Amino acid sequence: MKVKAPGRINIIGEHTDYNDGYVLPFAVDRYVFLSIERAEKYIFRSETMNETVEMDELKKLNSWTDYIVGVIKSFEKRGCRVPPVKIEVSSNLPMGAGLSSSAALEVATAFAISEYFGFNLPKLELVKISREAEVEFVGVRCGVMDQFTSAFGKEDHAIFLDTMTLNYEYVPLKLEGYEINLVDSNVKHELSSSEYNKRRQECEEVLRLLGKRSFREVKVDELNKLSTVLRKRAKHVLEENKRVLKSVEALKEGDFETLGKLLFDSHESLRNLYEVSCEETDFIVDFLREKSGILGARMVGGGFGGGVIVLSGKGTFEDIKEELFKAYKEKFGIELSFFQIESADGVQKI
Ligand code: GLA
Questions:
Q1: Whose CA is nearest to atom 1 of ligand 1?
Q2: Which end is more exposed in the chain, N or C (fewer Cβ atoms within 10 Å of the end residue's Cβ)?
Q3: Residues enclosing ligand 1, CB less than 6 A?
Q4: Does 349 map to a domain?
Q5: Which string of b and e fits 67-104 if b means at least 16 CB within 10 Å?
């Protein structure tokens, strides 16, 4: 049996998904493709890595197989035994670009196992299994956005998700005269996962100090009780949530100018308050801010490298791309990659 699960791009709502906040992602038309069949032992093959790994016992290798093994472990925790299987994966999703190839791999694995062995779990349970794999087995304490989007994506729509209740609404993504591109900075700084977990701890500390159970109860005027660093983190979360709500309205009204400004504001907040940006992605955003035809840009995903989402008028990014490529190469000696992004449906059989 074969399945495919898409990556995701987040329009806005960064570092809010583990703070009971709002996000506005959509599934992208790039996928992890996965086939599954019974085997004598566990055999995992990645075309992209050009590597085959065989295991009699499931174990952690600190490698791409952890995403698959983690998902199998999560099934087993729920009493769903997964006998030895051969799983082959290939992908046209760039890795480390902020499109969440790891969540796509987890969701593809979870869906394939559920269908192949007749567990037929609801999509939301697959999301939980996938996230649990990442948090408990891989060791990144991520929120729910990436796995949710890979499972629930819908073509021509973004997902306005409340990560506290998991209520969601599909918001039409009618780009028409506009387009969305992803610029991959092609850098991924080592600190990304340790700093990610550190931000989570800082946010937990904010709640502890303020005596709140959820960020939804935190008010701006309470933040002065916090240290400078914690105040900055909390301010980002509160303001980013507001930006998501405004972005949903802007998208519904087809007001891409406003949406673009919100993207730039989000980047500034991620740079100055949440401090998860880096020199390379700042350079890209600052460069684009000066160009007419570019409505907005900001870093996407966890940060410390990865991608920048760019909202522009249709066709206007084409020339700017070349200028940006040259300037970035001159500054950092690194070549950028560009991807034009369309929305897509969530995980499915092929
Ligand atoms: C990573 C995580 C997500 C989310 C983003 C930041 O992509 O996997 O859950 O927290 O970072 O918004």
A1: 302
A2: C
A3: 14-15, 17-18, 100, 142-143, 145-146, 301-302
A4: no
A5: bbbbbbbbbeeeebebeebbbbbebebbbbbbbbbbbb
Domain limit, last residue, from 141, 173, 205: 173
| CA atoms of 146 and 313, how far apart (whole Å) | 27
Residue 62 CA to residue 134 CA, distance in Å, equals 12
Domain that includes residue 12, residue range: 2-173
For the segment 216-268, what is each residue's pLDDT rounded down to a tens digit? 999 999 999 999 999 999 999 999 999 999 999 999 999 999 999 999 999 99
Q: Are residues 25 and 117 in the same domain?
A: yes
132 within 8 A of 74, measured Cβ to Cβ? yes
Is pLDDT above 90 for 203?
Answer: yes
* Structure confidence by residue, pLDDT tens digits, 101-114: 999 999 999 999 99
Q: Output the domain CATH number for residue 54.
A: 3.30.230.10
| Protein residue whose Cα sits closest to atom 11 of ligand 1 | 302
pLDDT, tens only, 38-56: 999 999 999 999 999 999 9
| Residues 153-170 pLDDT 10s | 999 999 999 999 999 999
Please report whether residue 265 resides in a domain.
yes
CB atoms within 10 A of CB 58: 16
CA proximity to 133, closest of 99, 165, 110, 162: 110
Site to probe by mutation for ligand 1, drawn from 28, 67, 142, 201 as the one with most ligand atoms within 8 Å of Cβ, is 142
**Region 275-293: what's the mean pLDDT?**
97
